[in-house]
Amino acid sequence: MCASCITHHFDVEKALSVKRCRVCGKELLSTQETCMKCRENPVIFHCDYVLPLFSYRLWNKELLFHWKIEGNRVLSNFYAGLIRDTLLKLGKKVIVPVPPRKGKIQKKGWDQIEDLCVFLEKKYGFQVLRLLKRCSVRQQKKLNRMERLENMKTAYSLVSQKQLKRELNKNKGLLPAEVCLLDDVCTTGSTLEACAQILKAYGITKVGAITLFIVD
User: Fold this and answer.
1) In terms of Cα–Cα distance, which of 11, 9, 20 is closest to 208?
2) Which DSSP symbol is given to 54?
3) Residues ≥6 apart with Cβ < 8 Å to 194
4) What's the whole-number mean pLDDT along residues 42-54?
5) Among candidates 91, 96, 83, 78, which has minimal Cα distance to 170?
6) pLDDT the model gives residue 140
7) How far is 146 from 128, CA to CA, in rounded Å?
8) What is the pTM of this model?
9) What backbone torsions phi and psi does residue 52 show, to the nearest 5 degrees?
10) Does the first or last residue of the chain, that is N or C, have fewer Cβ atoms within 10 Å of its Cβ?
């Protein structure tokens, strides 16, 4: 990507200035605070905010395919920079990644969200707490909306007590009051809702979410 395309298509300040649904983060075309879907059939209840930066359309969709499916990991550093800029502007410090499905890293050798977290942690100095694990091996992209919602009920859980202790030691052994979930794409919001519900039940007061893209 040339500098001109990056500036034009991946402007974080512009993304943050867009009027969005206060529930799911979709760009609003009306004067209401929430989109039609969140008014009529809400999915997200436990996420305090959802901020998707860009629409999952056209060449954004193609870029994600090159990164996530074809394994073009040079894009990890680029996307991590966008997340860094967003976190700095929002004043968010603690990240909780949405974990990959079971066996994905062993099979593919990497996970795109973990790649982002390595850059954010090692290069940019953010605190990353890996508090969640995925229990289900079913891929969300292969499910319809109702199947996604049903699958999320048992798809995630907290990591083991031993790992929880190890992760919280990064924060002086304390449970942070606020965390920001990180994922690549928000489709129905069911993944973010499931993760936020678990984290709040664990005692975290405020849980938000940032995603690179949203299916709108």
Assistant:
1) 20
2) E
3) 152, 153, 155, 156
4) 96
5) 96
6) 63
7) 31
8) 0.93
9) -90, 130
10) N
User: SS3 letters for the chain?
Assistant: CCHHHHHHHCCHHHHHHCCECCCCCCECCCCCCCCHHHHHCCCCCCCCEEEEEEECCHHHHHHHHHHHHCCCCHHHHHHHHHHHHHHHHHCCCEEEECCCCCCHHHHHCCCHHHHHHHHHHHHCCCEECCCEEECCCCCHHHCCHHHHHHHCCCCEEECCHHHHHHHHHHHCCCCCCEEEEEEEEECCCHHHHHHHHHHHHHCCCEEEEEEEEECC
How far apart CA 49 and CA 131 sit, in angstroms, is 19
What percent of the chain clears pLDDT 70, i.e. is strictly above it? 94
Residue 18 and residue 191: Cα distance in Å, rounded?
A: 23
CB atoms within 10 A of CB 44: 22
At 2 the pLDDT is 86
User: Tens of pLDDT along 168-181?
Assistant: 999 999 999 999 99
